[in-house]
Amino acid sequence: xxxxxxxxxxxxxxxxxxxxxxxxxxxxxxxxxxxxxxxxxxxxxxxxxxxxxxxxxxxxxxxxxxxxxxxxxxxxxxxxxxxxxxxxxxxxxxxxxxxxxxxxxxxxxxxxxxxxxxxxxxxxxxxxxxxxxxxxxxxxxxxxxxxxxxxxxxxxxxxxxxxxxxxxxxxxxxxxxxxxxxxxxxxxxxxxxxxxxxxxxxxxxxxxxxxxxxxxxxxxxxxxxxxxxxxxxxxxxxxxxxxxxxxxxxxxxxxxxxxxxxxxxxxxxxxxxxxxxxxxxxxxxxxxxxxxxxxxxxxxxxxxxxxxxxxxxxxxxxxxxxxxxxxxxxxxxxxxxxxxxxxxxxxxxxxxxxxxxxxxxxxxxxxxxxxxxxxxxxxxxx
Amino acid sequence: xxxxxxxxxxxxxxxxxxxxxxxxxxxxxxxxxxxxxxxxxxxxxxxxxxxxxxxxxxxxxxxxxxxxxxxxxxxxxxxxxxxxxxxxxxxxxxxxxxxxxxxxxxxxxxxxxxxxxxxxxxxxxxxxxxxxxxxxxxxxxxxxxxxxxxxxxxxxxxxxxxxxxxxxxxxxxxxxxxxxxxxxxxxxxxxxxxxxxxxx
Lengths: 382, 200
Fold this sequence. Notes:
The structure holds 2 protein chains of 2 kinds.
Chain A (H helix, E strand, L loop, with lengths): L15 E6 L5 E2 L5 E2 L2 E8 L9 E5 L25 E2 L4 E2 L4 E5 L14 E2 L4 E2 L9 H14 L5 E7 L1 H12 L4 E7 L7 H15 L9 H4 L4 H15 L2 H7 L18 H16 L2 H13 L10 H5 L3 E7 L7 H13 L4 E6 L13 H18 L2
Parallel strand pairs in A: 5-8, 5-11, 6-7, 11-12, 12-13, 13-14
Antiparallel strand pairs in A: 1-4, 2-3, 4-8, 9-10
Helix pairs in contact in A: 1-2, 3-5, 3-8, 5-7
Chain B lengths: L4 H8 L6 E5 L5 H10 L2 E6 L2 H9 L4 E3 L14 E7 L8 H11 E9 L4 H8 L24 H10 L2 E9 L13 H4 L2 E8 L3
Parallel strand pairs in B: 1-2, 1-4, 2-3, 4-5
Antiparallel strand pairs in B: 5-7, 6-7
Helix pairs in contact in B: 1-2
C-alpha cells in the first residue's frame, strides 16, 4: 500500500460486478446465438451530476481491465489510465463521472471464455461464442442503462477501445455526444492480422492449451501466451523507443554468447511475457484478437446513415511513431467521418513511444484531451 | 466576441448554412463565428500545434495536416466554400493548393497581402525589402515565401481556370476601397477574392 495517496488520485476504489444479462434474458449475438448470464466488472470515479450530463465511458484495449484509476486496497500501483483520470487531470473527476468496464470475452471479472458455463458447470473454453465489436458495445450499453444514463457526454478508448467507441457512436449517435478514437483502426491490415495469427498459433499449439480445456485439466498454456505477449509488445513500441530503452546492451548475466537471455531487450520481453501470465487468460487473447480482425464497420454501406442524421463530435488521434495502428489507420477513419459531414478533429501527436503512447502522459496528447473534454462539458451546459 | 475585421469581411462573403473548409484556420475564429452566427458547418485545417489546440478549445473541428502536401484527404466537391485566408503567400506549392481548392469546393475565398502596394515599391526603390502593417516581418524571419502583386496573382487564377467573381481591395488599414479603382495594384494593401471554378 502506498503510504499516502497522491492529491490528484481518485483514491481507494473497488471493482463492482453487475449481472446485465441472464440465461433467461440473454444477449443476442451479432453472429447469431445467445450468451447469458453475463456479469460485468466495472469501476466509477467522480459523481454523476443531477442532470446526468457528465458521464464519460472508458473502453479498454486488448488486455485492459475495469481498474483504470485510483488504488485497490493494499495495491502499490494505481489503475492503468491513472495519469488521465483524477482530480485536476484531463478527465477531472471533480467535474466528470467516469465509467470503466471490463470487456466481455475478457478475464478480469466480466464473463469470458474461462468463466463457468452454468449449463455444464465447467469453463466454456472454445464453446464460448465468437464475439464481434457490436457484442462488446451491446454490453457497454446495458451497463450505461443500468447506471441510469441515457446519453454519455463522451466515450473514449485507445486501440481496441477506440474501435468500440467508433462502432458505438456510428450505431447509436443519440447515446454519445463526443467520441474519442485514439490510436485505433477501422480495418486491420494483413500485417495486423498476421501478428495476431502468430500470437494465436503460439497459444493454440502449446501442449497445455488442451483444446481450450486447460482449466479443467489443471494446466495453462504459459509458454504460448508468454510468446504471444512478447511479440505483441514489440509491436506496441517503436523501434526508436526500444533503441532508447535498451540499444544493444548486454544482459548483466551474459558471460559468453549463447542462446539464453544475452541482451537486455530479451530480458525485458521475457519479463513482459511472464508478468502477463499473472493477469491474462489465453482464451480471452484468442477471442478478443478475433474481434479486432473482423472489425470493418465501414464495409457496411449504411455505416454512416445514423450518424449523418444525428452527428457526433469526434476526436481522432494517432501517434507519429505508432506502427501497430499508425496515422494511416486514423486518417482513414477521419476521411470516412469527414466525408459524411461529421464534425471531426484529428491530430497526429508527436511521440517516440509508438502504440503505447496512448497510455502515457505525453504532453500535447493530454493537452488535446483536456481542451476537448473541457469544451464538451461547456457545450452541454451552454 | 468580435471578429477580426478581415475575417468579418470574409464571413460576410459566405452564405448562411454553407459547409466551409478553412485552410490555415488558425485558432478557428472564422469558423466559430460562422457556426454560431450563420448556421454554417465546417472544418478547419491548421498545422501550428498551439493554434490547433486553441481551435479545439473553441469547439471548431480542426484537422491537423500540411496544406502543401495532404489536401488529397478531402473529397471532390465536398464543401460549398473553401477559404484560404492570408495563407497563399506562405505555401510551398500554391498552385497545387489552389487546384485542390477548386476540386474540393465550388466557391473559393482567397485573401492575400499585396506586395505591389506603393509603399512597398518605394521601400524597394530605396533599396530595402517591403515592410508594412500587411507585411510586418523582416526578410529573415518572415513566414512569407511567395511575394506576389495582385495583378500577377490574378494571372495565376486565370491560368488555373479560376474565375474572379468579386475582388475587394483593402487599404493598408483594412478598409475596403472604392470598387473599380484602376490603381488597385498600387493603392491596395491587400485584397479578398471570391473565385469560382470555371465549371461552377
